[in-house]
Amino acid sequence: MTRAAVEEGFERFVEDAVRATYEEFSVVNALRGGNRPPGVTERLLKRNELLERRVVRPELDDYRDRVLAEFHAALDAVESEEPFEAHRDRILAHDAYALAMRSDLSDDRSEEIRDALLARQRRLVEDVEPLLDSDEDDFWNALADVFTVDRALRFVDERFEFTEPMARYPDAFRLAVTIDPGELLGGVGGLLAGGLPEMRVEFTDEARRAMRRAETRVREETTREVRRRL
């Protein structure tokens, strides 16, 4: 099986996860709480569709791109004659969790988490590596060629765990985005908010909730697909 076919199959799963996260994510939950100028949050919430399109969607697209870039880099590492660890910096440079680590973590804590993130990525690519040796060109045919149904189901259960780092290190990450209220509100609302400073909105808890629900959905959908195809 070609590497391109493996990457295409993985990309499809990532797209499903991002789609499900987008559907589960609540702008209302993300904006509530914190220090907000009076009335601004209420006006922003009335434009939640705009917020979803111009804030949430780009953040999730960026997450998707990082996941795919990291997977490509990890595949390069597995196929290389160098030790996997030699590719550490390049792999973690794309890791969404590594990039979202809190800046106030100790050096030892940060290094521990980076080690765990690298090991997580290594397990993933080592699990899909046998697909590259299959003579089948189609992803699902290659999966059936290499894995038994039980092995494929175990792979889905063990590797479709997008929120595992958050569960393992619940206080280690901070997800946030800066928004300009005046730009987002537009019209009269924008004029009223135009003099306000940019707002830093942290959405770590909401991302954790949405991703956990999305993870469950994608795992269930993929499990059904595995049983149907294998």
List the helices and strands and how they pair.
Elements: H1 3-24, H2 27-31, H3 40-45, H4 48-79, H5 88-92, H6 96-99, H7 107-132, H8 139-146, H9 149-159, H10 164-168, E1 176-179, H11 181-185, H12 187-193, E2 199-202, H13 204-229
Antiparallel strand pairs: 1-2
Helix pairs in contact: 1-4, 1-13, 4-7, 9-13
Could you provide a short overview of the structure?
With 230 residues, the chain is mostly helical. Helix content is 70%, strand content 3%.
Looking at the chains present, what oligomeric state does this protein adopt?
Answer: single chain
Rounded Rg: 20 Å
* Helix-and-strand structural type: mainly alpha
Number of strands: 2
Residue share in β-strands: under 5%
Order of strands in the sheet with the most strands?
Answer: 1-2
The major sheet is characterized as: 2 strands, antiparallel
The backbone outline, from C-alpha atoms, is: globular
Sequence of secondary-structure elements: HHHHHHHHHHEHHEH
- The helix tally amounts to 13
Q: What is the residue-mean pLDDT, rounded to a whole number?
A: 87
| Low confidence ranges | 187-194
What is the terminal-to-terminal distance?
17 Å
Helix content: over 70%
